[in-house]
Write a structure and sequence with these properties.
Blueprint (H helix, E strand, L loop, with lengths): L4 E7 L3 H15 L3 E3 L8 E6 L4 H13 L1 H6 L4 E5 H14 L5 E3 L7 H9 L4 E3 L7 H4 L11 E5 L1 E2 L10 H4 L4 E2 L2 H13 L4 E5 L7 E3 L5 E3 H9 L6 E5 L8 H9 L6 E3 L7 H6 L6 H14 L4 E8 L6 H14 L3 E6 L16 H24 L5 E9 L6 E4 L5 E4 L9 E9 L4 E5 L3
Parallel strand pairs: 1-2, 1-3, 3-4, 4-5, 5-6, 7-10, 10-13, 14-15, 15-16, 19-21
Antiparallel strand pairs: 8-9, 11-12, 17-18, 17-20, 18-19, 20-21
This protein binds 5'-deoxyadenosine (5AD) and iron/sulfur cluster (SF4).
């Protein structure tokens, strides 16, 4: 057997990229590569990139610059850029950074082994097509490598919503859903390999409408119910959702499907109707709050998370205050917040921009409010019993770390639970970013 070549993959951005990086590693495994944790001894480096904000894209160019020395030491080293920056600015990457041998967009990963062969011949390869064939059909798993207890599973890609700030509809294309049978097969395979919790991924996952085994269009809720029937699978989550696609059956699933965890990431972006309209979000603050009310009616303990953009073009002080009011009203368990970042080619890029200092000040205020709510949500867990899926040993000897159903990190000292076990844990204390607890003996 020839010695395996080494592949280093660095992943930026969302969980979809984490999933894609695993698939790339598997595809390249078939071409004789094994993964390494460091770029230093790699024969091939792949950066799986994110284009969502300007900073994310710029990071890639500085990272690439750092590989100059490695390429001098090892002239056979090949460097590839994958993901959304590759899709959005492929030719520009090739021009700006001659070190790059390969640029591959998210819809072409199944062709990586062929591209690698061409790159080895000294060719420069750029593949950012949106092919008709489904990349998932050809991205098959390698035989039964053992997995950790949690996994991502992409069920849907792309977005048709065209929020005025967002590059996703351009980089990932329109909405496309995988067929139900494929997803169920992949989920069963993951469970056989040790997975207990699956997070269904999609840029707009609740818009899922894949073809079912009966030939009908299945909703995300129906897919979740099919996955719920898999023995050995204990937990289901999904992310990221759009408020307008929270259909009645999906809300209902949060009440009736015991494997569906009480955590929902439901971005609203702003609490001002004027800004929501300018963002092309096609919902109002009021309709979002009503939706939250309906979800809480079926699952009162659900922990909510969101995304917020501050300093969107034309955002006034009053608009920003409306966002803070909405956050106070919802009371989030956690949230992600960003300063608006101009993305060339998106409608909002052409509009009058908010001053950078104003954006910074608003971001700090919003984050302070979210931090308060996050702490309160954690504190509210103290004294309660939660179920923890243990994922790995902690930093201290004998300690184990896992996640509660609410996605809080929980650590337990002197813990005899094994990785993959789910145990009832009494929460004793809330630390900055995690909870401490002890196993409840039945
Ligand atoms: N600027 C700032 N934040 C953005 N997001 C998407 N596009 C931008 C942008 N141009 C944020 C949104 C989205 C999350 C994934 O990233 O809040 O929900
Ligand atoms: Fe981007 Fe999400 Fe809006 Fe789609 S729904 S355009 S992915 S922010």
């Amino acid at each position: 057997m020839p010695k395996p070549k080494k592949l280093y993959i660095k992943t930026y951005g969302c969980q979809m990229n984490v999933y894609d990086s695993e698939r790339m590693a598997e595809a390249m495994g078939g071409a004789g590569y094994e993964q390494t944790d460091t770029p230093d001894d790699a024969d091939m480096i792949l950066l799986n990139t994110c284009h969502i904000r300007e900073k994310a894209a710029e990071k890639i160019y500085s990272e690439l610059g750092r590989f100059q020395g490695l390429k001098l030491e090892n002239p056979d080293l090949k460097i590839g850029v994958a993901g959304c920056v590759a899709q959005a600015e492929g030719p520009e990457i090739m021009r700006r950074q001659p070190l790059v041998d390969l640029v591959v967009g998210p819809q072409s990963y199944h062709r990586l082994p062929q591209m690698e062969a061409r790159v080895r011949e000294g060719e420069k390869v750029l593949d950012t097509d949106f092919p008709i064939e489904n990349k998932f059909d050809t991205l098959r798993h390698r035989p039964k490598a053992k997995r950790g207890p949690t996994a991502f599973l992409t069920v849907q890609e792309g977005c048709d919503k065209f929020c005025a700030f967002c590059v996703v509809p351009y980089t990932r294309g329109g909405e496309a859903s995988r067929p139900v049978t494929r997803i169920v097969e992949e989920a069963r395979d993951l469970v056989e390999r040790g997975v207990r919790e699956i997070t269904l991924l999609g840029q707009n996952v609740n818009a899922y409408h894949g073809t079912g085994p009966d030939g009908a269009d299945w909703s995300l809720a129906r897919l979740i119910r099919a996955l719920d029937a898999i023995d050995g699978l204990k937990r289901i989550r999904f992310t990221t959702s759009h408020p307008n696609d929270m259909s009645e059956d999906l809300i209902e699933a949060h009440g009736s499907c015991t494997k569906l965890m009480p955590y929902l990431h439901l971005p609203v972006q702003s609490g001002s109707d004027h800004i929501l309209k300018r963002m092309n979000r096609s919902h109002t603050a009021e309709s979002y709050l009503r939706l939250i009310g309906r979800i809480r009616a079926v699952r009162p303990d659900i922990l909510l998370s969101g995304d917020f953009i501050v300093g969107f073009p034309e955002e006034s002080d009053a608009d920003f205050e409306a966002t803070l009011d909405l956050i106070r009203e919802v009371n989030y368990g956690t949230a992600y917040s960003f300063k608006y970042s101009t993305r060339p080619g998106t409608p909002a890029a052409e509009r009058p921009q908010v001053d950078e200092a104003v954006k910074t000040e608003r971001l700090h205020r919003l984050q302070a409010l979210i931090t308060t709510q996050q702490r309160a949500a954690q504190e509210a867990m103290v004294g309660r019993n939660v179920n923890v899926l243990f994922e790995k040993p902690g930093r201290l000897p004998g300690q184990m770390v896992g996640k509660s159903e609410y996605l809080h990190a929980v650590h337990v000292a002197d813990c005899d639970a094994a990785i993959g076990d789910i145990a009832q844990v009494e929460i004793l204390r809330s630390d900055t970013n995690s909870l401490a607890g002890r196993i409840v003996r039945g």
